[in-house]
């Protein structure tokens, strides 16, 4: 659906431009501000998204899991496979939970 298409597009955009996902406050100039900005830049917004989707699929609600699995399938078909390798464990974990 539209939500899954949007998540797929946002994932690709976050993968190419992770810096647009974080607000860098210009008023925090100084040692501690620069360290915080460096820490924020080192974060992976795609990791947050995949972790959130994996956690959404944890409860035993069939509709939630199906939606998350459809989203994972859309990401697998629309994204570069090399971009998904770091997130395979997060994708496989809810599938394993659903099988058991």
Structure overview:
With 100 residues, the chain is mainly α. Helix content is 72%, strand content 0%. It has six helices and no strands. Helix 1 crosses helix 4 and helix 3 (45-56) runs parallel beside helix 6 (88-99). It is globular, with a radius of gyration of 16 Å. The model has no long low-confidence stretch (mean pLDDT 84).
Amino- and carboxy-terminal Cα gap: 28 Å
Give the overall silhouette: globular
Q: Runs with pLDDT <50, length 5+?
A: none
Count of helical segments?
6
Radius of gyration: 16 Å
Mean pLDDT: 84
Major sheet? none
Total beta-strand segments: 0
Strand and helix layout:
Layout: H1 2-16, H2 31-42, H3 45-56, H4 62-78, H5 81-84, H6 88-99
Helix pairs in contact: 1-4, 3-6
Notable characteristics:
100 residues; single chain; 6 helices; mainly alpha
Brief characterization of the structure:
The chain has 100 residues and is mainly alpha-helical. The chain has helices spanning 2-16, 31-42, 45-56, 62-78, 81-84, 88-99.
């Amino acid at each position: 659906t539209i939500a899954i298409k949007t998540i797929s597009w946002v994932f690709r955009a976050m993968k190419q431009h992770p810096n647009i996902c974080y607000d860098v406050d210009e008023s925090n100039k100084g040692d501690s501000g620069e360290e915080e900005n460096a820490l924020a830049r080192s974060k992976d917004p795609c990791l947050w998204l995949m972790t959130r989707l994996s956690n959404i699929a944890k409860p035993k609600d069939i509709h939630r899991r199906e939606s998350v699995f459809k989203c994972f399938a859309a990401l697998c078909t629309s994204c570069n496979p090399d971009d998904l390798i770091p997130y395979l464990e997060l994708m496989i974990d809810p599938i394993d939970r659903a099988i058991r």
